[in-house]
Here is the input.
Amino acid sequence: MADGNGAVQTKKKYTAKDFASDQDVRWCPGCGDYSILAQVQRTLPELDIPIEKYVFVSGIGCSSRFPYYMNTYGIHGIHGRAPAIASGVKTANPDLSVWVATGDGDALSIGGNHLIHAMRRNIGLKILMFNNRIYALTKGQYSPTSELGKKTKSSPYGTIDYPFNPVQLALGSQGTFVARSMDRDPKHLQQMILRAGKHKGTAFIEIYQNCNVFNDGAYFVLTEKETKPDNVLYLEHGKPLVFGKENDKGIRLNGFTPEIVSLKDGKYTLNDLIVYDETSLDVAFLLAQFSDRPGFPTPVGVFYEVERPTYEDMMVQQIETAKQKRGKGDLNRLLRAGNTWEISGN
Amino acid sequence: MGKTVEILDDVVIRFAGDSGDGMQLTGARFTDTTALVGNDLSTLPDYPAEIRAPAGTLFGVSSFQLHFSSKDILTPGDQPDVLVAMNPAALRVHLKDLRKGGLIIANSDSFVDRDLELAGYKSNPLTDGSLKEYQLVAVPITKLTLNALQGLGLNQKAMVRSKNFFALGLMYWLFSRPMEPTEDWVKEKFGKEPLVAEANIKALRAGYYYGETTEEFTSRYEVKPAQLKPGIYRNISGNEATALGLVAAAQKAGLQLYYASYPITPASDILHNLSIYKNYDVKTFQAEDEIAAAGAAVGAAYAGALAVTGTSGPGAALKSETISLAVMLELPLVIVDVQRGGPSTGLPTKTEQADLLFVTFGRHGEAPAVVVAAATPADCFNMAYEAARIAIKYMTPVYLLTDGYLANGSEPWLVPDADELPKIQVAFRTDPENFHPYSRNENNVRPWALPGTPGLEHRIGGLEKAHITGNVSYDPDNHDFMVHLRAEKVKGISKDIPPQDVFGEEAGELLVVSWGGTFGAVRAAVERVRAKGFSVSHAHLRYLNPFPRNLGDVLKKFNKILVPEINLGQLAHLIKAEFLLPVHQFNKVRGLPLRSSELEDAIIELIGGGK
Here is the structure.
């Protein structure tokens, strides 16, 4: 039997290969998308969902070529509309496992409206947002996550728009699962994909992704060995917020203000630090702003997860209730409802 | 004292008042009662886009016109015989339409200083003799309603609100209709407010008895039941019929119905109706915008539902890119466009038929879609059903065009037997052997393969497809082939739709060609011209793309072709382009149905029957 999330006990054990389609992957050599594709293909076998129940839906952009490379059902849609199309797939057949592959331009700019409403409704979509902070398929214009002042083909004097913080946006949209990971951290990315796959309701993962052609190194400070430990904060439920090369730094609250403290000088210990609670929206919002806060490490991991009834479950429930109350629909009864009169033949 | 009863064949009544006066409710009740006594009928609600326009103003006037008859009728009528005017503004706006010698029933309580001034009257038309060409009955409706409701314990404002029921009761008396159906309706509608229910029923009866006792009326009227085809009837509006047609199609096809929509006038009632029918496996999705509604419908179609998105012109424009995607994906999809006055926000509550070229051509690239149109409110059922049948059988987007007049207007509907509706076969692909998503059957139709089916995993998308495999292809010859193939597929549907029929002779001097909601007005005009002895025929199109396969032959048998439309000549344009025939046009774009009488004059002039 299936549960509402498409999970079924299946005898077949899949491997990553089963999820690879016969199409040549056409991203630029060195693109971060390759890693994301590989981690998805490696992780899905662990979800125990029959392969025919997966549907990958995308919009337009480099990331949106994703469905062609998955040996599953899929729709390569139109710009920005993947969450809308995927919402139709999932609500029409809640038994499917529906995933959205999208980018920062696709999801946050042209498709911003659909993204926030999908999360608000808590439709069971797994949204993978590849954030390379640039428009790559159109060859290098700034995106809604490009940093202020960034010089691109369409902003030769630097951008004058302030960027979105996708995690904050997802939290503000009533998202029930909000996470962040990075293309160059395969193990962590796999964990996040697995968690998203198991979540009931909308799961949103912002994935920092390197575009080596138009925005190379955008995240190197977070992904490269020398700088990563001092700049990345791994969020783990129930654990204190510690980071640094020697796990020597922590985050504590000073009143309502978070501050970085050293664990080396004996002034503070682990007991003084914020213990991460991924069920707390307060803490999630607090941590979500770190990536914009100079001097603070960028958190990755699950910011927030909460269980809330899904849209599709409630939709089905209303139908079942109506059937119980009024009986399964009889077409003749419907057509003849209301005030009718009969004209008899002469 | 008894009054004489005159038997009439045919009456047109128009109720008019402030948009807060309950004229739509009054008209709808009169309509239901009239249907139940067995008259044929046709209605035309007409109301402002503002929910509560300032009281007493000309632009705040709301009206409801009803034509009922002991004969088969086709239109809500050009000219009312009776005008119920609840205030001076209503009289001022509608008097010009009233037949000379027609009856005016005016609420004299409202014909006082401020209301007269708001309507632009310098003197009171009820007393200054300016209405002497009409039969005028001035009734102090407000005062009589207040008198009737004294002692109920309602405040003055609440009592005044029941005055439309007084007017309704008076009209029931005048036209010999029973009050019981309305009383029953009031009891159900206001079940939670028994005092309001009682007030409305009291006001209704007070109006009725006033008619009986007053000296103002020397006679009352009766319109006998119409001789309609035997069967079970109900009164139905176009939007209700569209909703039912979609449910019926889904049920007959064994599919769930998935209706994704964003609220828009005048299409919202389809969403309202469908959201009730959950026990018929109907899923309604109120999307965040028009584009999302179309997108969700595309997704639902891929997942195996009968997917429909409904809207009006502005929304149809927003959906255009997504319909293009559906053309490329070759998924079944019905798009309902309840046309309204445009361009832009235009006339949201008024009718028009100016989206024909838009839905036929308004997509980027070579993106053929099927277009069908309903002719009458009840015909919306047939054409919604037909749109679904074609969409499913041919894996293609199909536009159903209705309009504001059809959507809100109503008529008696001979309810079909569900068992006798045409079959809709659905054959989902399940066999993985030799499966290719863009292989084709004899009708050039690709298989419908649902996610969840083992072994049929495949990807579809907006990029050009390689023939058969459906893989992405940038090959120039493949693109040329696919562009032709998609066009051929839609063209080929002309083999699967009824040939065009002609009312009147099949050859002759003049053929009047119409489509959509103008059917009634055009047919009535043609009938009148024929009754005068002229040979004029009428062809009404329900299939606009592709055209019926015999349409060219039909047209070529006439010396002249006249195309009346509520646009600047969109069908005329298509006929000229497709058949290279000269076409005469008759175009009135007033936000209202065509007037049969005007068209009648135009026809006679065209065939040289005038002076």
In short: The domain at 16-239+276-315 of chain A is CATH 3.40.50.970 (Rossmann fold). Chain A touches chain B through 63 residues (CB under 8 Å). Chain A has eleven helices and twelve strands. Chain A has a mean pLDDT of 95.
